[in-house]
Each structure stands twice: as C-alpha cells, then as structure tokens.
Amino acid sequence: MVTKRDTTSEPFDRGKLLRGLIVASTKRNVSTDDLEALINDIETELHNTFRSEIPAKQLGDMVLARLKDLDKVAYIRFASVYKSFQDLDEFTHELKDLK
Prior knowledge:
Blueprint: E1 2-3, E2 9-10, H1 14-24, H2 32-48, E3 54-55, H3 56-70, H4 72-82, H5 88-98
Parallel strand pairs: 1-3
Antiparallel strand pairs: 1-2
Helix pairs in contact: 1-2, 1-4, 2-3, 3-4, 4-5
C-alpha cells in the first residue's frame, strides 16, 4: 500500500509508476526494460524490508534516486511532477543539486 499526502492509502500500482516513468523518459535513451528493472529493484527493496505500506514521498524518493543514475533529464522531468515545483526558483535549485 502507498500512503498518499492526503493520508489516504491505495495499492501500489506498478503500471501507474511505469507510465509516469515512460512519460519522463520520452525521447531519451532509456528503454522500457531499463524502467522495468528500476521498478523491480524498488519492489525487491520493499519486499526485503518486509514493508506492507510506504509513504508516497518515500516511494518517490526511491524512484528519483534510481532515475538520477539512469538519466538526468528523465530525473528532472519526473521530479518536476513529483515535487510539484511552484516556480522557476525551485526548478533551478533542483538543477543545481543535480550537478
């Protein structure tokens, strides 16, 4: 289960995560197999720590950590949606942290 910011919970949806990653990596040199492997890695980590519920923020951070190593442009695209940047300063700050 994933606990959302509004405190509601919903089942982990691998397809939803994959769709978000595909959008973030559009026109990048990232294959669907790479994205599937990223999700598999996250699922393995969750199973190995015997977690039945995870906060959405923590799940998003897990995705970003792996995406950063995979493709930095896809990372920024995913982060811009996940972190809900409110202005250019937040976006610029994230770019500086990425370097």
